[in-house]
Every structure is written in structure tokens, then in C-alpha cells.
Specification:
The chain is mainly α and about 150 residues long. It is built from 5 helices and 2 strands, in the order E-H-H-E-H-H-H. The protein has one domain. The chain has a two-stranded antiparallel ribbon. Helix 2 crosses helix 3 and helix 3 packs antiparallel against helix 5. It is flat.
């Protein structure tokens, strides 16, 4: 059995607020392509998952009309949540290393320097917390899957 990738997308989109993922600012194909890229990057980090995380299509462009993208494994809620957190990590990665973010920290005005440096530190802290949370969930998942928590 398989899982519609929309389940993962919906859970991810409920955790962020970004106009990039709004039909007002982007086309449906752009949004789905971006989400699929995030999923594909995130799924490579979930090596503990014993289910098939590959998809029936690897790009939105190759998707025939009236077809949907499915994850080949039948995922449960815990697995979807872990993938969502990994997608958040992948979503944050370019935000932190984006050129504009780094350039803002190199301003001449002391207030702006401290403000932007603080902003970058907060982004880095959020990124690290998201990674730590995803890793913790994957460790817990591994123990639950192997029965290590059983008495």
C-alpha cells in the first residue's frame, strides 16, 4: 500500500507561514515542485525508516495529468511527523545561508549589526533545535520499531 504525499505536505504547511506556498504568489506546480524537493531531501535523512520512502514520480514535470504523487510505503502518523520535521530542517537550511541574510549582518550601523547578528543567531538556534528534535524522534522511532522499549 502507499501514502499520498499530500498528507506530508499538509502537515508541513500547517507548521510554517510562508507566502511562497500561497497560490496568490506561486503556481500550483511551483509549490508542488518545491514541496517535493523538500520531501526528497528530507527522506534521505530518515534512514531508520523500514518503509519505502521513494515516490512514484521524482518530479512534478514528469507527473501525467490527473495523477498524484504517492510515497511507496504505507506511512503511519509518527513517520509522517518525522518526515515533516526533516522537511522543516531542509526548509530552514537555505534561509540561514542565504546571501541576503549574511549581507544584512555586514552593515555599518551598530544597531543594524547587532539586530541582524541576533536575527542570524536566532535562525541558527531554531535550525539546530529543529535538527535536534527530528533526530530525537528518529532515535525514539528506532527503539519503538526494534521493540527496545518493550518490557
Amino acid at each position: 500500500m502507499s501514502t499520498n504525499i499530500e498528507k506530508v505536505y499538509n502537515r508541513f504547511l500547517n507548521k510554517i507561514s510562508d507566502y511562497k506556498y500561497s497560490l496568490t504568489f506561486s503556481s500550483k506546480e511551483e509549490i508542488e515542485s518545491s514541496l517535493l524537493d523538500l520531501y526528497l531531501s528530507a527522506s534521505t535523512h530518515f534512514i531508520q525508516c523500514r518503509k519505502d520512502l521513494s515516490t512514484n514520480y521524482d518530479s512534478v514535470e514528469s507527473l501525467p495529468l490527473d495523477e498524484y504523487i504517492f510515497i511507496n510505503g504505507d506511512l503511519n502518523g509518527r513517520e509522517i511527523e518525522i518526515l515533516t520535521k526533516l522537511m522543516l530542517v531542509e526548509y530552514m537550511r537555505p534561509i540561514i545561508i542565504r546571501n541576503e541574510t549574511l549581507e544584512q549582518a555586514l552593515s555599518d550601523v551598530d544597531f543594524v549589526i547587532y539586530s541582524q547578528a541576533n536575527h542570524i543567531n536566532q535562525l541558527q538556534s531554531l535550525f539546530e533545535n529543529l535538527k535536534r528534535e527530528a533526530n530525537s524522534d528518529m532515535v525514539e522511532y528506532s527503539y519503538l520499531e526494534t521493540g527496545a522499549y518493550d518490557n
